[in-house]
Design a protein that fits this description.
The protein is mostly helical. The chain contains 8 helices and no strands.
């Protein structure tokens, strides 16, 4: 018998034995998912530590980046725990808890990306009123909604929406049901469409601003052209990376059948985890303030005179 697959992904050769299960042979795909989870956890733990450590990083944008990093950190830990429990503690209860944890974490990650996109749009569309109490309230509302909805989605399989007692209802990701993964996929497609629409609007605003500057100066300078092109290219990279990572898995969850070889699920799930590995690079490590705070965080132990903690409250 084959060993239990991650998230209990089922293939045609998987079966349950009545006798005590033999030690499962380690699946290379499971190892890759665990390695991916480890990299995700380490990368995002650094981002979370930097944002928590640096009092200057308290703006709405960095709060949302911190939410994204926290969600990705939990997702990475979930992949590691799934690997450990899969080969150490083989229990349906643990399996449900692990799957629910991963669903909630990845849902929070995708929702946080949407929240960051909305924030970027508002910062351009309402530039004059962006730094106001209304914006802070909007950010907090988005955060509560993001984590509230994600937690509910993660609790669904734990509270009974699973196929442990009806294998005909199983999806390509056992013990999630077909209707459950269809709901998750539909939610992803909706978020992707909203993000696509917002990024198109952002590109229009950026190009319009560049055109207005050109009219004021009577010509479009090379620096303005380069900046505009770079901004649009960055947005395309962000959206392209997000879509390339998650679309294959979301589509396969809808069209796939649990009788298909489990390698198909692995091959689409693994790239989806890479999005959580790329997020801190796109949204955190490329930011100069994050880079500066990272330098202080890691070098402050050796250069005690350089520390954010000595700053006054007015700098927060």
């Amino acid at each position: 018998h084959h060993g239990q697959l991650p998230l209990n992904l089922t293939g045609p050769a998987v079966s349950l034995a009545s006798r005590p299960p033999a030690p499962a042979a380690i699946n290379p795909w499971d190892v890759m998912l665990c390695v991916s989870g480890t990299a995700i956890a380490c990368e995002n733990a650094i981002v979370v530590a930097i944002i928590c450590y640096s009092p200057t990083l308290r703006t709405p944008m960095f709060v949302l980046v911190g939410s994204l990093a926290t969600a990705d950190l939990l997702a990475g830990l979930g992949l590691i725990l799934n690997f450990v429990f899969q080969y150490v503690i083989r229990s349906e209860t643990v399996s449900l808890l692990t799957v629910g944890f991963l669903v909630a974490s990845f849902a929070a990650s995708v929702s946080s990306l949407l929240a960051i996109t909305v924030d970027r749009y508002l910062s351009l569309y309402n530039a004059l009123t962006y730094y106001s109490e209304r914006t802070v309230l909007c950010i907090h509302t988005m955060l509560v909604g993001t984590w509230g909805v994600s937690l509910c989605l993660g609790l669904l399989p734990v509270l009974g929406w699973n196929c442990l007692h009806d294998r005909s209802a199983c999806s390509v990701v056992r013990p999630l049901t077909k209707s459950n993964v269809t709901l998750l996929s539909a939610s992803f497609f909706l978020i992707f469409i909203i993000m696509l629409h917002l990024y198109i609007e952002i590109c229009k605003i950026v190009c319009r601003h560049a055109h207005q500057i050109a009219l004021q100066q009577h010509f479009l300078t090379a620096s303005h052209y380069v900046a505009t092109k770079k901004g649009v290219s960055t947005l395309a990279i962000i959206l392209g990376t997000f879509g390339a990572s998650w679309l294959p898995f979301a589509i396969y969850c809808v069209v796939g059948d649990p009788d298909y070889p489990s390698v198909y699920t692995y091959a689409t799930l693994l790239p989806a985890t890479y999005n959580s590995m790329i997020n801190p690079i796109i949204y955190a490590y490329r930011n100069q303030e994050i880079q500066r705070s990272m330098w202080v965080l890691f070098c402050g132990c050796f250069q005690s005179k350089v520390s954010f903690r000595s700053r006054s409250p007015s700098d927060v």
